[in-house]
């Protein structure tokens, strides 16, 4: 008689790669309409995943777009199970205003990410994206979680990525999501002590699952020391007797029919030696618009670029700009010694409550969005494998 052996079951290591909980208690639309919009957004995302696989969308997932929510009857949204190389499962309990969904796929190829640091895909890895929507106590809650499952012993680092559905939900004009603070693309201003107190209280809340990124305003009242290009001077400058450059320009323009422009007439006082009678003024200032006064490079993350970073970083962090006059109070509240122009990363207390300061030199030559910054990569990495994330009243597999 032939002996048969049972193949061993391979164990896997399952861990979260992205997690987000948020709620909407606004009155832009009715509570039921908010619930419908969120459910229809999840179903639309699932349909897009199926279309990417060149598959046919099952009837249980074929509903109107979120923009056409008024035409949808909640009782018509049904549960669905669809497996075709990937697995889609939805549970619709519309009478209780509960909806959960999951999409399970398996990577079939191994591909490095664009930085060559980790993997966008790793063959054999299972990726499960879960959604939970619930209307409770006049408040709509939604949770999003992405889980990776790798074989035991496999160390295939992958850079965490926010699911595209987060953008669809946040950018929907009929919804207004928040945790302890609104989740938007905006940069909030910390311009008084009450707002700093509020930020600190928000970070200490168990509901807070987003880092705070605070850019400190640059101190423009402290001017950099001018750097004099002595090659354009007949002698070394003497920094003891100020001369108004506008007066020098006026002398140079004497005898000329061309009048100085309004821009040329605006000049600052610079400390340079007044030329003697024997010296030619043209040797000291060879051009009506002097080019020998240079300023030191201002190393800082521009607020315009910072706002662009905030537009791509929501769902990972909340972004703030600290007004300069509140720097002392901010340092006192958080027991740090940050300086003008620097960037401060504040962890929520339930993530450890640590604080990191990005120096001016680390913010130099920042290009791209949140994903391209050093602190953006660090925040995303920290979100990886976070246990005990707060999901309010939600369950991803309701009993």
Structural notes for this entry:
The protein has 399 residues and is of the alpha+beta class. Helices cover 22% and strands 24% of the residues. It has helices at 31-52, 164-170, 193-204, 245-253, 262-265, 281-284, 303-313, 327-334, 374-383, and strands spanning 12-24, 80-83, 87-93, 98-106, 111-112, 119-121, 126-136, 139-151, 187-190, 211-216, 227-228, 243-244, 269-270, 293-294, 317-322, 343-346, 355-358. It has a six-stranded antiparallel β-sheet, with helices on one face. The protein has a five-stranded mixed β-sheet with strand order 9-15-10-16-17. Strand 7 and strand 8 form a beta hairpin. The longest helix is centred in the N-terminal third of the chain and has 22 residues, at 31-52. The protein starts with 11 loop residues before the first strand and ends in a 16-residue tail after the last helix. The model is unreliable at 227-243, 262-273 and 277-299 (pLDDT under 50).
Per-chain topology:
Blueprint lengths: L11 E13 L6 H22 L27 E4 L3 E7 L4 E9 L4 E2 L6 E3 L4 E11 L2 E13 L12 H7 L16 E4 L2 H12 L6 E6 L10 E2 L14 E2 H9 L8 H4 L3 E2 L10 H4 L8 E2 L8 H11 L3 E6 L4 H8 L8 E4 L8 E4 L15 H10 L16
Parallel strand pairs: 9-15, 10-15
Antiparallel strand pairs: 1-8, 2-3, 3-4, 4-7, 5-6, 7-8, 10-16, 11-14, 12-13, 16-17
Helix pairs in contact: 1-2, 3-8
